[in-house]
From TrEMBL:
InterPro entries: Beta-gal/glucu_dom_sf (IPR036156), Galactose-bd-like_sf (IPR008979), GH (IPR017853), Glyco_hydro_2 (IPR006101), Glyco_hydro_2_AS (IPR023232), Glyco_hydro_2_cat (IPR006103), Glyco_hydro_2_CS (IPR023230), Glyco_hydro_2_N (IPR006104)
PANTHER family: BETA-GLUCURONIDASE
Lineage: Bacteria, Bacillati, Actinomycetota, Actinomycetes, Micrococcales
Name of the featured protein: Beta-glucuronidase
Pfam families noted in UniProt: Glyco_hydro_2, Glyco_hydro_2_C, Glyco_hydro_2_N
Organism, as annotated: Microbacterium deminutum
Keyword terms, alphabetized: Glycosidase, Hydrolase
Family membership: Belongs to the glycosyl hydrolase 2 family.
């Protein structure tokens, strides 16, 4: 699905702002059928949970409703009129006046509706969007809903971040011609110093010729092609590289009787990604990942996209010397991906398949542990929802040069019977959709080498490990020995590239001790340094991404007090001591594999 863009043949209007807002009630069976009777207004984009003082809204389980009036520009007569929702967490329904025009399941990916037949140029219409935050065993991510004695719904889930909901990303009204470019897929290769740009495009609405023009950063034409499938060769191509992004502009035109009826311009980075032995190569050179697992999370906004936070977070990553991040644990806003493209930040792009591990229930509570993979829990329907998420993620992000790897899931129960039957078709699907990138998953600490059942299916092994925190807390000597023993077992068993995608310790900013005291700033630094010593001794380790970039909100309870505190920055982006320690290491090594002293 192409991101909406204005061009000579398309117009784009943001309909962000303040919308009427109401929680679903039985007294209003069809809230889209008239003006919402509510005094509340909610910001879009933003999660709704922290906007209001009423805890019943924050803790609401089920549908909520957003509504506003929208005027179609008078110049759009004869154009197709589209409503696009960048995300509705976790299920969305769109109504134009009294008609439902779109329904989508999945909280972090876009969907749209052609509303041309229901609206008129120059006139207003009532736009209502319903958002449902419910999670079940058949959703991605999964969860459980229970109903208490009063009839109220209670939601529980298995991921360790708050279940923010609502319209956390932008909503758009845009126009496109009747005959238009519907999709474009670009893959790139190198032939010596020549860049090879392979373009496949599809049209909708009628027959047209396709014309392709590739321009460099100065606007000079460096290549062209014709037809829906074409190859453009660029002499002396400037490569997109980590830390040194270079983007070409590819303009795709649909031409009828010599006239351009539609055009769309896509940024293209020429680069290659491959796995060779125990290395990951970008443009044929070994690459060492430094950076973070992150979250879309900030006070008041929740998961609401904010361009000010986008700029500041990337500035902090540049300051600390990070060259990469993982979109833990869901696809991030497209603005984030575009920014990474422009600034040379490498991305591991992850689906929202987090919490596929019911063993964590027993591990945290000490209670019984249900089977993760069964007809009653995560089943064939769950897997199809997971497959659909993969299809939509690849369709959205396939053209981003910053994306070098797909992560199919985070911390599944990969040591339980049934895991292989669940994941093997999904890995096959991912490779069929995009053969140009490696595929990985993120292994949980309970599924160590030899007990994990799926690692051989993937190109790269990503590990989340907490030696010195959840395991052997406070004993960094024992933790270091255990970590090295396990990593060497993975290396010997598979010989594949390995990335430590999570490691860290909860830390209260301002808490200090001269001893190895968990929760202090000093302990966080020492624990990270212990991991780094081990990483440098393991040849197959090709990266380290600390958990987490910044503190973030989680569900309430005894296990988390005001959220997860593993950030090297506080939730309002103030550095802890660990940030300065990481800056010293990462600015010194760049993208090169460190060597143990």
């Amino acid at each position: 699905m192409l991101k909406p863009k204005a061009s000579a043949t398309r117009e784009l209007i943001s309909i962000d702002g303040l919308w009427r807002f109401a929680v679903d009630t039985a007294s209003t069976p069809e809230p889209w059928s008239s003006t919402l009777d509510t005094p509340l207004e909610a910001a879009v984009p933003a999660s709704y949970n922290d906007l209001f003082t009423d805890s019943a809204i924050r803790d609401h389980v089920g549908w909520v409703w957003y509504q506003r009036s929208v005027r179609v520009p008078r110049g759009w007569s004869g154009e197709r009129v589209i409503v696009r929702v960048d995300a509705a967490t976790h299920e969305g329904a769109v109504y134009v006046n009294d008609s439902r025009v779109a329904h989508h399941v999945g909280g972090y990916l876009p969907f749209e509706a052609d509303i041309t037949e229901l609206v008129a140029a120059g006139e207003e219409f009532r736009l209502t969007i319903g958002v449902n935050n419910e999670l079940t065993f058949e959703t991605i991510p999964p969860g459980i809903i229970e109903v208490d004695a009063s009839g109220a719904k209670k939601q529980s889930y298995f991921h360790d971040f708050y279940n923010y909901a609502g319209l956390a990303r932008s909503v758009w009204l845009w126009s496109r011609p009747l005959v238009h470019i519907d999709d474009v897929t670009v893959t790139t290769q190198r032939d010596g110093s020549t860049g090879v740009v392979d373009v496949a495009s599809t049209l909708i609405g009628g027959d047209a010729d396709v014309r392709l023009t590739l321009r460099d950063a100065s606007g000079a034409v460096v290549g062209s092609g014709e037809g829906p499938a074409a190859v453009i060769r660029v002499s002396d191509a400037v490569l997109w590289q980590p830390g040194a992004a270079y983007l070409y502009d590819l303009t795709i035109e649909a031409v009828v009787d010599g006239a351009v009826v539609d055009e769309y311009t896509l940024a293209v980075g020429i680069r290659t990604v491959e796995v060779s032995g125990a290395q990951i190569l970008i443009n044929g050179e070994p690459f060492y990942f430094t950076g973070f697992g992150k979250h879309e999370d900030s006070a008041v906004r929740g998961k609401g996209h904010d361009n000010a936070y986008l700029v500041h977070d990337f500035q902090l990553m540049d300051w600390i010397g990070a060259n990469s991040f993982r979109t833990s644990h869901y696809p991030y806003a497209e603005e984030v991906m575009d920014f990474a493209d422009r600034h040379g930040i490498v991305v591991i792009d992850e689906t929202p398949a987090v919490g596929l591990n019911l063993g964590i229930i027993g591990g945290i509570t000490g209670g019984p542990t249900p089977k993760t993979w069964s007809p009653e829990t995560l089943n064939d329907t769950t897997r199809e929802a997971h497959a659909q998420v993969i299809r939509e993620l690849v369709a959205r992000d396939k053209n981003h040069p910053s994306v070098v790897m797909w992560s199919v899931t985070n911390e599944p129960a990969s040591n339980e019977e049934g895991a292989r039957e669940y994941f093997e078709p999904l890995v096959t699907l991912t490779r069929e959709l995009d053969p140009s990138r490696p595929v990985t998953f993120v292994n949980v600490m309970m599924a160590v080498a030899g007990t994990d059942l799926i690692a051989d299916l993937f190109d790269v092994i990503c590990l989340n490990r907490y030696y010195g925190w959840y395991v052997m807390p406070g004993d960094l000597v024992a933790a270091e020995a255990a970590l090295e023993t396990e990593l060497r077992a993975w290396e010997q068993l598979y010989g594949k590239p390995m990335i430590m995608t999570e490691y860290g310790a909860d830390t209260i900013a301002g808490l200090h001790s001269i001893h190895d005291q968990p929760w202090t700033e000093e302990y966080q630094v020492k624990m990270l340094e212990m991991f780094h010593r081990v990483h440098d001794r393991i040849p197959a380790m090709v990266g380290e991404q600390v958990w987490n970039f910044a503190d973030f909100q989680t569900s309430s309870g005894f296990f988390r007090v005001d959220g997860n505190k593993k950030g090297v920055f506080t939730r309002d982006r103030k550095p802890k001591a660990a940030a300065h320690a990481l800056r010293a290491r990462w600015t010194a090594i760049g993208s090169a594999k460190p060597v143990a002293d």
